Amino acid sequence: MKLFLLSVVFILTFCTTRSFAASHHSVDSKHKARLAHSTANKAVERDVPHHAVLLSKTRGHPKARGGKAQLKEAINRAQAKYQQSFKNYLANTGNVNKLQNTSFVHDIVRPRRSKTKRQQGVDSLTDIDGELLWTGPQAFGTPPQYFAGGQDFDTGSSDTFVNPGYYNPSKSSTARDTGKTFSVQYGDGTSASGKIYNDTLTVAGLQAFGQAVGDATSSDIGSESAGISGMAFPSIAQFQRDPFFYTLRKQGAVSRGVFGFGLSKENARLDLGTLDSDSYEGDINWVTIDDSNGFWQTSQGTLNGVPLLTSIIDTGTTVIVGAPDQVSLICLQAGGIVIAEGTDIFCGYVEGMAPPQFTFEFNGQQYMLSRDAIDFAQDGPLILTGIVGSGIGLLDGWVLGDAFLRNLYAAFDIDNIRAGFAPRR
Ligand SMILES: *[C@@H]1O[C@H](CO)[C@@H](O)[C@H](O)[C@H]1NC(C)=O
Ligand SMILES: *[C@@H]1O[C@H](CO)[C@@H](O)[C@H](O)[C@H]1NC(C)=O
């Protein structure tokens, strides 16, 4: 088994001294903020421009995480998130989201995160480790409250909320109780609820004033991140308020409505208000985005020559999810083995044999699925890829999650409603 094992939790902490002093308008300024990037034993300090944050993620050995269980967990999360977004969209617009399969019913018999599951020993870690979220520092309130674990920056949702026990509005001079509450009921049986505050959000030395922040007072969503910061479009925001990047843009904290994710094993980063040309090769290959359903949705992609009618670029989903029949076909044609389990499809190959190859294409440019996304998990003698087939309630839709995005630089532009890719440098 040649899979590289890493089970180090990187905790990002933000060194306050200079970054907080950085004014929110100097997006392209040369000022540097110091990020203390602390690993298990030693702190590595790096200078990064203050409009960027370093991201980190928790990884574990695929086998230790339970292989298939890890993929299932990612499917559950995606299903839950999209179902919630569809509900929000209906509440906000009065219309059923065009991407929603309304005949889809939650598969509530799926294993849910629960205390009983956690008591099962080794497997109990799968539901936490399987999340594999990209997180980075983001603070709330005045003075800024930073949380270990960081925020999960998610281009697949649009609200900002914090899990219980982190944000303390009574210790923030800028917190305003909006009198509104929120409640998310996920299809896998988990839920979160709490109060919505207006408060100052600080990220990468930029400040969003009066940002809607959900302070969860109850939650049974197992998570290693402090919370989620949604970066999709306003129409799927449950809070019916601007996502934080919109607030930054409207208030002039950033002069361009662009942000860029560089997801890679080392030095993963999120740039706000600018794209870091040192982090990618060549030019950004821009694709047209249809924002009418609230997601970073494009119809320009193909996978191994098969057109993807709808694909959603989603940094908050670990895997690539497609319709089961399409995934089966593409997997078999690529030389993979299809493993059906219930209504889900996994695509794998026998360890030691030639792995299937997957190539995405946008505007004539090809992006091969990276080897670590092909060797995503292990299930006995099989290696499972990060491409799964599951009816998560999307009509003919694909979710292009981290398995697609790793080793790319992904750019998002709310001014021109477009997204793009370039090879990561
Ligand atoms: C919609 O959901 C139903 C029920 O899960 C499923 O049988 C059907 O295949 C789905 N349709 C599409 C187009 O995904
Ligand atoms: C919170 O912000 C919204 C949007 O700016 C505003 O309409 C509302 O009055 C604010 N609420 C409070 C309590 O400050």
Automatic annotation (TrEMBL):
Q: Name one GO molecular function term.
A: aspartic-type endopeptidase activity
Q: Where is the signal peptide?
A: 1-21
Ranges for domain Peptidase A1 come to 134-422
Annotated Pfam families: Asp
**Per the record's keyword annotation, is Repressor included, yes or no?**
no
Gene Ontology terms describing biological process = proteolysis
User: What domain of life?
Assistant: Eukaryota
Q: Which Gene3D superfamilies match?
A: Acid Proteases
Q: Which InterPro entries match?
A: Aspartic_peptidase_A1, Pepsin-like_dom, PEPTIDASE_A1, Peptidase_aspartic_dom_sf
The protein's matches in CDD domains, at most eight in alphabetical order, are given as: pepsin_like
Keyword list (alphabetical) reads:
Hydrolase, Protease, Signal
* Family assignment from sequence similarity: Belongs to the peptidase A1 family.
Name of protein: Acid protease
Q: Which organism is it from?
A: Tilletiaria anomala (strain ATCC 24038 / CBS 436.72 / UBC 951)
